[in-house]
Amino acid sequence: MGSAKNKSSTARQARIAEMRRADQARERRNRILTIGVSAVIVAGLVVGGVVLVRSQSGDSDSTASDDKTSGKFVTGSDGVRTWEGTLSRTHVKTDVKYSMEPPVGGDHHQAWMNCNGDVYTKELNNVNAVHSLEHGAVWVTYTSKADKADVDKLAAKVKSTPYTLMSPNEDQSAPIMLTAWGHQRTVSGADDPNVGSFFEKYVQGEQTPEKGAACTGGLPQ
To answer: Polar residues bias located where (predicted)?
Structure first.
């Protein structure tokens, strides 16, 4: 009987030892699996962080891209220069090197300048003002060579006219210029009759790519 008990005890100990070895093997497999999953998660976080940083870097990139606009100005009998060709309308996150100043269209930022009769005393970012043109605004610009009286009169007209905006622009070729999407002209002063005719024709005119789009809710400057 003692022998039988010894055999039973030995078998039980063998089973216990086998179960312990199985448990230890299972624990090793679980540790390896956990380490592997953790490595994958960490790698994913690293890659995601790199992509996010690059994306954010691209959003704030100030490098100017070339305008994809192609064509040329053709001057009509009314003195208005009309762009004949393509005017790209892609939203971009960088500045744009426009082929004309002020630009009459082209790639632009997704945020527009408020153009509900807004008069700005500082120069605007073209990429934002061009978006206002896309909404049907007329943009009045002037240089330091323009008479102050003319600037004041034009400012009063802009303030009373929805879908217009006004700002200084020292890079343009004439003291006072009027710009709409795809159209532009020079005027001699605030009393030039061409000011009224340009406003009448191009404020929310047929040239507007996004007629009815808001001129409020954009950038105040």
So the answer is: 1-12
